[in-house]
Specification:
This protein has twelve helices and 14 strands. 47% of the residues are buried. It is an alpha/beta fold and 369 residues long. The structure holds pyridoxal-5'-phosphate (PLP). The site of pyridoxal-5'-phosphate has 13 residues, from helix 3.
Amino acid sequence: MAAPILLNPGPVTLSDRVRQALLHADVCHRELEFAALTREILDRLGAVYPVAADDYTAVLLTGSGTCAVEAMLATLVPRDGKALVLTNGVYGERMAEMVRLQGKPIAVVTAPWQAPLDLAAAATHLAADPAITHMVAVHHETTTGRLNDLAALGTLCKAHDVALLVDAVSSFGAEQLMFAEWNVAAVAATANKCLHSAPGISFVLARTELLFERPSAANSVYLDLQRYARAQRDGFSPFTQAVHVAYALREAAAEFADAGGVAARHALYRARSNRIRTMLQALDVELLLRDDEYGSALTAFRLPPGYSYAAIHHALKDAGFVIYAGQGAWSDTIFRIANMGAIEPADLDRLEASCRKIFRPAAAPGAAP
Ligand SMILES: *Cc1c(COP(=O)(O)O)cnc(C)c1O
């Protein structure tokens, strides 16, 4: 049987074009051809959001999305500043843990996983604590599929002259990001989610001056973005990069641009996620959040009464699809379906047919609705 279609939030199903690039001949990362490849990738990543093109610089890392997030926080949250971390899910809470482990001054505003970010509490903190220099938040909180209101948060940051650091790992390439307008200092992202490449490379898009003209706050060799940024001006990297994965990323970035960039990917994801939501709701599977609270890339559904996650997962796996469990305490109350990657309309037709069998086992074909 063909490999299953991945409906988890990365790694994603690759297109043939990207998969073929993984078979590129072996190349030394210290040779000019790899430096040229790195520079092309950095240019392409820097051009994904035209509003960021002039003032932000991409830095390429070998590692998963978490690597980029941790390098961003390590390098850019200053030891003599203070981070206000807003959380409403696993990934926001993880960033708070990172800043804490870095031993930097921190305040955390925690919202329940099902709630929006607590912007009122953030505003209160900002007004009361002039030590806060940086706000830290997740854009698309993959725990629930909620697209956090970065426009409101960014406006708050701008008003208080506080820099915004964003985990955009599951939104980069598919959701709007306004950068300077939102006082964004940097966003962290990865190759293997909305950009549809293979896992192994992640990146940070940071204000150029923060990479070259300010001291680095990193107490880490491997996670210091400035080391990479300096070397990558010429296309080189301080440490071995995932060479073959980089060839795949070049192809994925070219494919992304050819397909029409962020607006096109967003529209594609909207069409897919609308279809998946409509289809499952018609089978009495309920959304976790309100429809308009979701981003475009992933939907969390409540497990219907009498269904276990394992049973749904296994039935869909047998039918050729990989879905995703809820995290932590939600592992037996929700399931998630992402719609990133090379997915064809025919795949969604098959998904729909499989879901009918799983969630309407009694309905005979052709029976009256
Ligand atoms: C996927 C993801 C990450 C990073 O996860 P990795 O397993 O390290 O790739 C970070 N933040 C968000 C919001 C994510 O969706």
